[in-house]
TrEMBL record:
PANTHER family: RIBOFLAVIN KINASE (PTHR40706). Pathway: Cofactor biosynthesis; FMN biosynthesis; FMN from riboflavin (CTP route): step 1/1. It catalyses: riboflavin + CTP = CDP + FMN + H(+). The keyword ATP-binding does not apply. Its EC number is 2.7.1.161. GO terms for biological process: FMN biosynthetic process; riboflavin biosynthetic process. Its cofactor is Mg(2+). Keywords: Flavoprotein, FMN, Kinase, Magnesium, Metal-binding, Nucleotide-binding, Transferase. This is Riboflavin kinase. The keyword Nucleotide-binding applies. One of its GO terms (molecular function) is metal ion binding. The lineage of its organism: unclassified sequences, metagenomes, ecological metagenomes. Coiled coil: none annotated. It comes from marine sediment metagenome.
Length: 155
């Protein structure tokens, strides 16, 4: 009986979201490579990130569920900053640890981060994923491929 409750707690403490790979306009690569972001990503997330992000499109149900659940997960906050040379300001980014895998190969998964970017041009249903490897090569992805995003919000 105790094992059943433990398993139930694990199920309730996690969420699985399905997303579809889509091409971006390469802005993620530009921003991740900026020293003020890149160094914070490396220090705060614990991995040397690939200088680019993977865009995933979620359906309305999944994006609403994700946004609701993210309220209960403490983010890693990448602080906004000002470029001393150009006086340009860059906004903060909230990062949420997750695991990513292909829908058709759930066994091969990798640690990544969902980026909740405070200033973005994306549609409501598009999220950006940051990871150590280039995810399109790592998972052999093309536009339209389905990925699973796993989040855990237990202590």
């Amino acid at each position: 009986m105790l094992l059943m409750y433990k398993n139930l707690k694990e199920i309730l403490a996690s969420i699985v979201i399905l997303g579809s790979v889509q091409s971006g306009i390469k802005e993620g690569a530009y921003y991740v490579a900026i020293k003020g972001y890149f160094e914070q990503f490396q220090d705060m997330l614990g991995f040397l990130p690939y200088k680019g992000t993977l865009n995933l499109e979620l359906n309305d149900t999944n994006i609403d569920l994700l946004r609701e659940k993210l309220k209960y997960i403490k983010p890693v906050i990448i602080s906004g900053f000002k470029d001393d040379n150009s006086e340009r300001t860059y906004g903060s980014v909230h990062c949420y640890d997750c695991f990513i895998s292909r829908l058709d190969n759930h066994e091969k998964k990798i640690k990544a981060a969902i980026l909740d970017i405070q200033r973005t041009h994306h549609e409501k249903n598009t999220i950006e994923i940051l990871a150590k490897p280039y995810l399109r090569d790592y998972f052999n992805l093309k536009d339209g491929d389905k990925l699973i995003i796993e989040l855990n919000f237990s202590d």
